[in-house]
Specification:
The structure holds two protein chains of two kinds.
Chain A (H helix, E strand, L loop, with lengths): L8 E5 L4 E6 L9 E6 L6 E6 L4 E2 L4 E4 L5 E6 L8 E7 L17 E6 L1
Parallel strand pairs in A: 1-9
Antiparallel strand pairs in A: 2-7, 3-4, 3-8, 5-6, 6-7, 8-9
Chain B lengths: L3 E4 L2 E4 L5 E7 L6 E7 L6 E7 L5 E2 L8 E7 L2 E6 L8 E8 L7 E2 L3 E5 L1
Parallel strand pairs in B: 2-11
Antiparallel strand pairs in B: 1-3, 3-8, 4-5, 4-9, 5-6, 7-8, 9-10, 9-11
The chains are: A mainly beta, B mainly beta.
């Protein structure tokens, strides 16, 4: 089962910041938080990941709470092309090898509106 | 980001036949590859994990004799759906990861329709 909880859907006005929350209250100390998005009928696209510090790249910012039990993905200026399903995933490390498999939950469908 | 390519993008096959889907990492060596399946309006479901040169590890409920996975090189993994049936119709997606990188990159997916 997925270890994260996300709202099923959100709307955002074009040009405004989109803030997508994620709860991961059972996260372990050595697990990262990953964000991917999937535009309709395409493979998921990597956005960002973090362990405990806030992270920023050209696509988004990731804010992780101090207790690491939740995080927020921020798209600073949403465009219509950002309409997609956004997945927050806690990376599972299994066995003796670091396979790093990603288990997807239901994600948040973000609809950016003109 | 790194590029992962799947082929074909879509395929239609007759019931009872086998279909092979290729997944290639174009600009990095993929020590681990993952295969997912996605039904309409559902999330991705992990089918199996394969490490180069080793047998794939299948998730619970996934038939290893039906979904054959080969990861013979660091840039290529294949998924063969054997004796396909209409219920195998789905969107199949591969993902690849290099040992030294923490993020995995996904292919564009393959739409399989079994008629």
């Amino acid at each position: 089962d997925a270890k994260t909880t996300q709202p099923p859907s959100m709307d955002c006005a074009e040009g405004r910041a989109a803030n997508l929350p994620c709860n991961h209250s059972t996260i372990s100390g050595n697990e990262y938080v990953y964000w991917y998005r999937q535009i309709h009928s395409q493979g998921p696209q990597y956005i960002i990941h973090g362990l405990k510090n806030n992270e920023t790249n050209e696509m988004a910012s990731l804010i992780i709470t101090e207790d690491r039990k939740s995080s927020t993905l921020i798209l600073p200026h949403a465009t219509l092309r950002d309409t997609a399903v956004y997945y927050c995933i806690v990376r599972v490390i299994t066995g003796s090898g670091n396979t790093g498999k990603l288990i997807f939950g239901q994600g948040t469908t973000l609809q950016v509106k003109p | 980001g790194a590029v992962v390519s799947q082929h074909p993008s879509w395929v239609i096959c007759k019931s009872g036949t086998s279909v092979k889907i290729e997944c290639r990492s174009l600009d990095f060596q993929a020590t681990t590859m993952f295969w997912y399946r996605q039904f309409p309006k559902q999330s991705l479901m992990l089918m199996a994990t394969s490490n180069e040169g080793s047998k794939a590890t299948y998730e619970q409920g996934v038939e290893k004799d039906k979904f054959l996975i080969n990861h013979a090189s660091l840039t290529l993994s294949t998924l063969t759906v054997t004796s396909a049936h209409p219920e195998d119709s789905s969107f199949y997606i591969c993902s690849a990861r290099h040992l030294m990188n923490t993020e995995a990159f996904f292919g564009q997916g393959t739409r399989l329709t079994v008629v």
